[in-house]
Design brief:
Distance between the termini: 82 Å
Largest sheet: 7 strands, mixed
Low-confidence stretches: 1-45, 723-731
Mean pLDDT: 88
Shape: globular
Number of strands: 39
Radius of gyration: 29 Å
Helix content: 25-40%
Structural class: alpha/beta
CATH topology of the domain at 710-966: Alpha-Beta Plaits
CATH class of the domain at 710-966: Alpha Beta
Length: about 950
């Protein structure tokens, strides 16, 4: 009997069916018809666990503490799995460096895990092979190289893992002549060299945000997408006027960044001129007899002779005087930060200013550099190694999770030199420029499939544990090195067992744990980290006059009137490793709002001087090296500065990232310009043609509408004493909410536009990637977008970022026009979407004043395996032709309510967090019950900084925005 006949038979036998049973049978008939009338038995079967894993309940998420060493700053995370597959990343709330928050990169880690383009099997000269043959042949080649006294070149990422460092050391000992070099594109060692010159030893520093009152950042985007989560949180905590005195931020930079957007005073200064700004500050310190530096005769003499005047700095005198007074006026509680792209002598001068102001040990904590930072090779070391490779002195080259062909400067000629090595092995997640040059291509395990530990966070040792078995025939690179040891030294290729054994012999004895090792190990896995030592006492460095003299001489000499080029990490691709991640490629740049590519960011005046419009191609040249890049004209860029994001124009990166954007790397040199990422003497000429630059925001100001509001610290003091509250957010509603009334509060003073909320929403709600062409047509699908507005003069505007999601209006215009009641108002204040009713009229989107509804024009979801594993089963995967939008993570509301019911208690404030709230590193988003007077969201909604976006329309949104805040020097206008 066919399925249709079975259904007819069931209907004939079921006289008097109730409505529920009838609908169930009708649904089954439609399903059978759409499936080609296959029997259920022909479509596989559901098999239960033979032995159910301990603690695993079907349909219930499990959280595992881990870390992601392959991502910037090795974030400590919780990995949520459903039935054995990771579907969501959150920050580890117990980890001091995380506090429960994440960044956009780590939120997108699951897409990297389930990338269909990942390497699946070992390949030898393009043909599929197996691990047995790979291990045998590679070990034999290493043995032959050792016997013939040829050297082995091992290239790895910067090793934040003590266990990985021990594996490398063991590998070097076993094979003898092994040259190990670490490769991180943006770890150039300039900062360490600069601090060593003036302090006599390498060191790094971290800002103590609870103690700092004044901050000067020089080309230092610490609030950018690649900034540390702790810096986002610490800074945001000092920008809320309700909580006490606000920190004041000065920023000197060549082009607008996320940090510059939050500045109270932003100084558009060419990167090459910023050392002169610090030199002027240092000279002012020695002229002030109240400052400690004034008593040092050597330094005083040096700076008196080689200091610079305010005119040479290129900034108005009143601005410089205000900056000096701000930093000097509060000693021990100010700090000066220099960005990694600046040359070493800038870091020397910044360190000297901090020492002179007494900031070390108070506003700044000096930290001993990690082994990963100390292992950064000098440029001449790379040059010598490549020269030896070119002369055939290496019998094997092992590139383990590193892509030197793409990452190294083209003038080194690494790709050509690689042809002289008898054996080239490349271990990688995805095809890359280096795998294209290798004989053996080996699939690497993703961080979520791997064991490990890391000491990137001072005083902590963080564990990494796999959350599922490898999806492909992949291995960790550490496990590969263990498997390639000589036969007489092979123990176990299981890296998890190696890690545990090392912790038992080296970590456990010094950890001071009273438990036996197994309990200690399980506790460490549960928490995700252990504390390794008590905080070191504050360190106050002395200044070495000799080293400072060299730095001062370099800063005094530099003065270039020509174009200069600054290359920075890609806000979405970083150093190119995330080029194949569609979630990140489609996340708008926080300043330019560009997606799916990059450009040469210049000011309007520079574009006019070049006689080119936005999108038109320009050829830039440095010392005979040239690239062609389209212009991207942006406010806030210093004249004659060209900024280009790296990580684009990958030649081999997978189906998503290959060929996206333009590459400025051919302009770089291993010997560097001013620094490896800053070049002066750049020439430019018009090239033929243009390129399409896709931006998601075509307007830059609010046109007088009440979308964003700003307030200064002085104005807040007046507002705080007022007796009335803004009426736009307190007008009555005809809706009566007897139970919960869900709402959001968004603090624009804290938001930095990092994009973590957007990617968290994408991962939580199964939002697809639509591609550059669809975004260009205005068809992006993000449920929460980050709007960026400029205020003031284009040469140096103020910037406000605003997360914009569905406002869940009481008088929702979308509800009034839907002909099929697909969008309805819930008893708890949510503007809900009933997807199976939607017929795609799009009337609701046309009627929404906030433009937050998204329409599925096409079936955008990737159908290739294993991409289907990424879906959150709690959220419907929408079909083509329906409207979709934010509903405050209604699935999380239901889960929180169910948990409270099971525990026999009412819902508590904080039980439910939306995905955007949980991810936000600045804590800018708060969700809760507006009907609960004790809830945080209720109190924030009543804040005197609170307002409703477009409140004048009377639609009564459930989202309260808190005004952005500034703390400028009184009377100083820039």
């Amino acid at each position: 009997m066919s399925p249709i006949e079975e259904i007819k038979h069931s209907l004939a036998e079921s006289a008097g069916l109730d409505r529920r049973r009838f609908l169930a049978i009708l649904s089954a008939s439609l399903a059978a018809a759409s499936s080609g009338c296959n029997r259920l038995s022909e479509r596989g079967e559901i098999v239960s666990y033979r032995v159910q894993p301990e603690g695993v309940l079907p349909g219930v998420s499990q959280a595992y503490a881990s870390s992601l060493p392959g991502y910037p700053h090795a974030p400590a995370v919780l990995v949520f799995t459903r039935d054995g597959r990771p579907i969501k990343i959150e920050g580890n709330p117990d980890h001091p460096a995380s506090g429960g928050a994440t960044d956009a990169y780590s939120q997108a880690a699951t897409l990297d895990l389930y990338d269909p383009d990942r390497l699946g099997k070992p390949l030898y000269k393009g043909q599929q092979s197996n691990w047995k043959d790979a291990d045998g042949q590679i070990r034999a080649a290493l043995k032959q190289a050792a016997a013939s006294r040829e050297r082995i070149l091992l290239i790895t990422p910067a090793l934040v893992s003590p266990a990985a460092r021990s594996v490398v050391q063991r590998f070097q000992t076993a094979w003898g002549s092994v040259t190990h070099l670490t490769l991180e594109m943006f770890h150039s060692g300039e900062a360490l060299r600069g601090r060593r010159m003036v302090h006599g030893e390498p060191s790094t520093s971290r800002v103590n945000w609870d103690k700092a009152r004044r901050v000067l950042g020089c080309e230092c985007d610490f609030l950018g997408p690649a900034g540390r989560v702790a810096d986002h949180a610490g800074f945001a905590a000092r920008r809320r006027p309700e909580d006490g005195e606000m920190i004041r931020l000065w920023v000197a930079e060549g082009a607008m960044t996320s940090t510059g957007a939050k500045a109270d005073h932003r100084l558009p200064v060419r990167p090459s001129a910023q050392p002169r700004l610090l030199l002027w500050l240092l000279a002012e310190l020695v002229r002030d007899e109240r400052q400690p530096l004034a008593s040092n005769a050597d330094i005083r003499s040096l700076l008196t002779q080689l200091g610079v005047s305010s005119e040479e700095v290129g900034l108005p005198k009143d601005v410089l005087e205000a900056l000096r007074a701000d930093l000097v006026g509060d000693p021990h509680r100010s700090c000066v930060l220099a960005g990694d792209q600046l040359p070493w002598y800038t870091h020397s001068l910044a360190a000297a200013v901090n020492s002179g102001l007494g900031n070390e040990g108070t506003a700044l904590s000096s930290v001993v550099p990690s082994p990963a930072q100390l292992s950064v090779p000098a440029p001449d070391e790379w040059a010598a190694t490549v020269d030896e490779l070119r002369r055939g002195q290496f019998g094997a080259v092992l590139c383990m999770m590193a892509n030197p062909v793409y990452s190294l400067s083209a003038d080194l000629g690494f790709a050509t030199a690689l042809e002289n090595a008898p054996l080239v092995v490349s271990s990688s997640l995805l095809p890359s420029e280096t795998t294209a040059k290798a004989q053996w291509i080996l699939p690497a395990a993703h961080d979520l499939e791997s064991w490990g530990d890391n000491d990137d966070h001072p005083g902590l040792l963080t564990l990494q544990q796999p959350t599922l078995s490898p999806l492909f025939e992949s291995r960790q690179w550490e496990q590969m090195l263990l498997a390639w040891l000589p036969e007489n030294q092979l123990t176990t290729p299981d890296y998890g067992a190696y890690l545990k054994s090392r912790w038992e012999t080296e970590v456990y004895p010094v950890a001071g744990a009273a438990e036996d090792f197994d309990r200690f190990w399980q506790a460490a896995l549960h928490d995700g980290f252990i504390k390794t030592n008590s905080p070191a006492p504050p360190v106050v460095h002395k200044i070495d006059p000799t080293g400072l003299s060299e730095a001062v001489g370099e800063a005094r000499r530099l003065n270039s009137p020509e174009l200069e080029l600054l290359i920075v990490p890609g806000s979405r691709t970083y150093d190119g490793r995330f080029a194949n991640n569609g979630w990140l490629q489609e996340l708008p740049n926080p300043v330019t709002t560009q997606v799916w590519g990059n450009g040469a960011v210049v000011s309007e005046k520079t574009a006019q001087r070049l006689n080119r419009l936005e999108g038109e191609l320009v050829e830039f040249s440095v010392e005979g090296r040239s690239v062609t890049i389209p212009l991207l004209v942006e406010p806030g860029v210093a004249d004659d500065v060209v900024l280009v994001e790296a990580g684009y124009a990958r030649k081999t990166a997978g189906s998503v990232g290959t060929g996206v954007g333009f590459d400025a790397k051919p302009l770089t040199s291993n010997s560097g310009g001013i620094s490896p990422w800053l070049y002066t003497g750049v020439t430019a000429r018009a090239a033929q043609g243009s390129a399409v630059l896709v931006r998601v925001q075509g307007h830059h100001d609010t046109k007088g509408r009440s979308m964003v509001q700003e307030i200064e610290a002085a104005g807040w003091l007046k507002l705080a004493g007022a007796k009335t509250v803004h009426t736009a957010k307190t007008s009555p509603s005809s809706w009566e909410y007897k139970g919960h009334k869900w709402g959001l509060a968004v603090d624009l003073a804290a938001c930095t536009g990092c994009g973590a909320c957007t990617i968290a929403c994408v991962a939580e709600n199964n939002i697809p990637v639509v591609g550059a062409e669809q975004v260009r047509r205005g068809r992006e699908m993000h449920w929460i977008r980050l709007d960026r507005y400029y205020v003031g003069k284009p040469e140096n505007p103020r910037v406000v970022h605003q997360p914009m999601m569905c406002q869940q209006c009481d008088f929702a215009p979308c509800e009034k026009v839907c002909p099929v009641a697909a969008t309805v108002h819930s008893p708890e204040g949510l503007d809900e979407m009933v997807y199976n009713r939607c017929v795609g009229t799009r009337y609701c989107a046309n009627n929404c004043p906030y433009k937050v509804r998204r329409f599925n024009f096409l079936d955008f979801h990737d159908k290739r395996s294993p991409a289907e594993l990424i879906f959150n089963p709690e959220v419907t995967v929408r079909r083509r032709g329906v409207m979709e939008k934010c509903t405050f993570c209604v699935q999380r509301i239901a889960a929180g309510r169910l948990k409270a019911k099971i525990e026999g208690r009412p819902l508590r404030d904080g039980d439910i967090q939306t995905a955007c709230q949980q991810a936000c590193p600045a804590g800018a988003i708060v969700f809760g019950d507006l009907n609960d007077p004790q809830s945080r969201v209720h109190k924030l909604a009543a804040s005197r900084r609170g307002y409703l976006a477009l409140g004048e329309l009377g639609v009564q949104p459930a989202v309260t925005y808190l005004s952005a805040t500034r703390n400028p020097c009184p009377g100083l206008k820039i």
